[in-house]
Design brief:
- The complex is a heterodimer of chains A (138) and B (157).
- By secondary structure, chain A is mainly beta.
- Helix content of chain A is 3%, strand content 50%.
- Chain A is built from 1 helix and 10 strands.
- In chain A, the strands form 2 sheets. A 5-stranded antiparallel beta sheet of chain A has the order 1-3-9-5-7, with no helix packed on it. In chain A, strands 6-8-4-10 form a 4-stranded antiparallel beta sheet, with no helix packed on it.
- The N terminus of chain A is likely disordered.
- Chain B contains 1 helix and 10 strands.
- In chain B, strands 2-3-9-5-7 form a 5-stranded antiparallel beta sheet, with no helix packed on it.
- With 157 residues, chain B is mainly beta.
- Chain B is elongated and about 90 Å long.
- About 10% of the residues of chain B have low confidence.
- The chains are: A mainly beta (138), B mainly beta (157).
- At the A-B interface, strand 1, strand 2, strand 9 and strand 10 of A face helix 1, strand 1, strand 2, strand 3 and strand 9 of B.
């Protein structure tokens, strides 16, 4: 009876609307580095449970970007949390949103920006898997 | 005692929640070959004087250019849309961006000539261009006229 009446603590959940389309750099102003491109077509949905804890959202790539190429991600913050703005992504998990409070149920925008130096040269079509993780704030 | 252990285990399972929730996205990307050049200025060149006993003095005019390429070993060629009048010569001399080579002052004609070679993965502006107009005395008086100089970046790999 005691087991049956115990309240289950809901877990935090995270989902994304899909993957962004191809980020393709193809132009420059003479004398300047290539023009960056961006994609803001995807969102993430986050829910946090009731316990009075704070959470962070981290992002990491499955492999580093090629030399001279930078992929940055900007993740909008739910109410009460803080977006860290454009974060250059690499193979290390990095905070992108911090201090996400409890009882959040929100869908928020993701923006990716690809930039390249001329020294990167021509880069054929490639991909990286981005892992987003909710972790308890320290 | 055994029942208490089972009860505790069930409660722990019910209260347990993942330490983290994860999702993944896939980002695809590419960088195309990029070759851009730009020139500023519409220089005017007028020969108006000479030192007695010498050919007319050469007139010069400055301009600037800029380049961005993410390829290797590209070059800039230059040509004009129509031949110069007889005994009148228009030359151009482009400063080279870092790592490239200028071919120095080149006489311009309707056939493209190399003016900068070995341009590799560079983005640089405010590079000097010097136009020079020279004429021999036998060219006579030449009325005001214009030529369009066409610059092309080619050959990068």
């Amino acid at each position: 009876m005691l087991v049956a009446s115990a309240e289950r603590v809901p877990a935090q959940t995270l989902s994304v609307s899909g993957s962004p389309g191809l980020l393709r750099i193809s132009n420059a102003v003479a004398g300047s580095e290539p023009i960056s491109v961006s994609n803001s077509s995807t969102t993430y949905t986050i829910t946090t449970p009731n316990p009075n804890r704070l959470y962070n959202l981290t992002a990491r790539l499955n492999a580093p970007m090629p030399p001279g190429i930078t992929l940055s991600g900007t993740f909008a913050a739910p109410p009460g949390a803080t977006s860290l703005g454009a974060i250059a992504l690499d193979a290390t998990a990095r905070n992108v949103v911090t201090n996400i409070p409890r009882r959040i149920d929100a869908t928020l925008g993701i923006s990716y920006e690809l930039s390249a130096l001329v020294t990167a040269g021509v880069v054929p079509n490639g991909s990286r898997t981005i892992t987003l993780t909710i972790v308890q704030a320290p | 005692m055994q029942a208490r252990h089972i009860l505790t285990a069930v409660m722990l399972l019910l209260c347990a929640r993942p330490a983290a929730a994860q999702v993944q996205q896939v980002v695809t990307f590419q960088v195309d070959a990029i070759n851009q050049i730009a020139f500023s200025g519409n220089p005017s060149l007028v020969i108006t004087s000479a030192t007695a006993g010498s050919a007319p003095s050469t007139a010069t005019a400055p301009a600037t250019w800029a380049v961005t390429t993410n390829q290797s070993n590209a070059k800039i060629t230059a040509s004009i849309n129509a031949a110069m009048p007889a005994l009148v010569t228009l030359t151009v001399n482009l400063a080279a961006p870092t790592g490239a080579t200028s071919t120095g002052a080149q006489s311009l004609g309707t056939v493209a000539v190399d003016v900068v070679t070995g341009i590799t993965q560079v983005a640089q502006g405010s590079l000097a261009v010097i136009y020079a107009l020279s004429a021999t005395a036998t060219a006579g008086v030449v009325a005001s006229t214009t030529r369009t100089v066409t610059y092309t970046i080619t050959g990068g790999t």
